[in-house]
Write a structure and sequence with these properties.
This protein is of the alpha+beta class. It has five helices and five strands; from the N terminus they run E-E-E-E-E-H-H-H-H-H. The chain has one domain.
């Protein structure tokens, strides 16, 4: 599971995997701090924080809806490394609303310019997953 981004490294802790209890469309699981959270029934990838994306991706892996490799791509999208190294700035970046559709598209364009076909494929897969989940939510409302 994606735990956090500290000093530019991505922490993955399989020990944090737990079975998810569900009740009327709301999943209950552990967030990155070990406390219980309720995952929302709706998700908006165009307006969410890095923490929200990380928690969503972790939940999807726990439920078996995405692979660990796909989860790692979402984890990379949550990375925010402040130039100053200021931990307070890191908290602000992790809780600032971001459009992850745009972030993925920008990453794809950069990978294309570098001729990095593996990153293009990873980000396109993440983008397709986000679009699929966004569509499900749009039709549920």
């Amino acid at each position: 599971m994606i735990n956090s981004v500290q000093g530019g490294s991505l922490g993955v802790y399989p020990a944090m995997r737990t079975l998810t209890q569900t009740g009327q469309g709301i999943g209950v699981g552990l967030n990155s701090y070990g406390s219980t959270t309720k995952s929302p029934t709706s998700i908006d990838f165009s307006n969410m924080t890095r923490n929200e994306l990380r928690d969503w991706a972790n939940e999807q892996v726990k439920c078996g809806k995405i692979s660990l490799d796909e989860c790692m791509t979402f984890g990379a999208m949550t990375m925010a490394i402040p130039v100053s190294g200021n931990a307070m700035q890191d908290d602000v970046l992790m809780n600032t609303k971001t459009n992850f559709f745009e972030k993925a598209d920008t990453g794809i364009q950069g990978a294309i310019s570098r001729n990095d076909s593996s990153v293009v494929l990873q980000l396109q897969t993440a983008l397709d997953i986000m679009k699929d989940h966004q569509k499900k939510i749009d039709f549920m409302v």
